[in-house]
Amino acid sequence: MTGQANTSGDAAAPPPVGADLRISVNGAWHALTVDTRESLLDTLRDRLGLTGAKKGCDHGQCGACTVLIDGRRVLSCLTLTVSLDDESVTTVEGLGLPGAPHPLQRAFVEHDALQCGFCTPGQICSAVGVLAEAAEGRPSLVTHRDRAHPGGSAEPVITGALPLDEEEIRERMSGNLCRCGAYPGILAAIAEAARAGEGAR
């Protein structure tokens, strides 16, 4: 056995399976045929040229690929595009315009909440989701029990908008990592937007 590989157990990889779908990205509808194994992140970057969402870990652990689907934040590297027929996706490119940035984009600049900028698109999209969650009254793991469980009820109950203090912001943003350590600025930017009642749009 010199120089020859044993191929008796090898099988050819199955061909990709395509699926047709329509998806709205930043307000524009796209008709696509995608590999059923294709992630939303790859669709956005490779097919639509939207490179704001970053491929950091590609395992759902860093948050750099965070986007919004119907207003809720998701990790696009773990989301199959084929599951999004007729859904609405918003990336960081769809949040604001160069002359009219989104309130959170403006706050990130004002509070120097970025250094290399690689994680920033995911941080901002996640922060938009955080403000929306709090506005809807969705509790987190650190939401004070008397607010999330009125009357001592066992199940969380939506009772109106929840305040976003430092503990709440840290917990809700814990899935978004910053290798540069710009967390103080990120926290300050989100807190400012929360106080102003901006950003959850």
TrEMBL record:
Pfam families: Fer2, Fer2_2. Keywords: 2Fe-2S, Iron, Iron-sulfur, Metal-binding, Oxidoreductase. The keyword Iron applies. Residues 19-95 form the 2Fe-2S ferredoxin-type domain. Pathway: Alkaloid degradation; nicotine degradation. GO terms for molecular function: 2 iron, 2 sulfur cluster binding; metal ion binding; oxidoreductase activity, acting on the aldehyde or oxo group of donors. The keyword Iron-sulfur applies. PROSITE patterns: 2FE2S_FER_1 (PS00197), 2FE2S_FER_2 (PS51085). This is Oxidoreductase. It comes from Sphaerisporangium melleum.
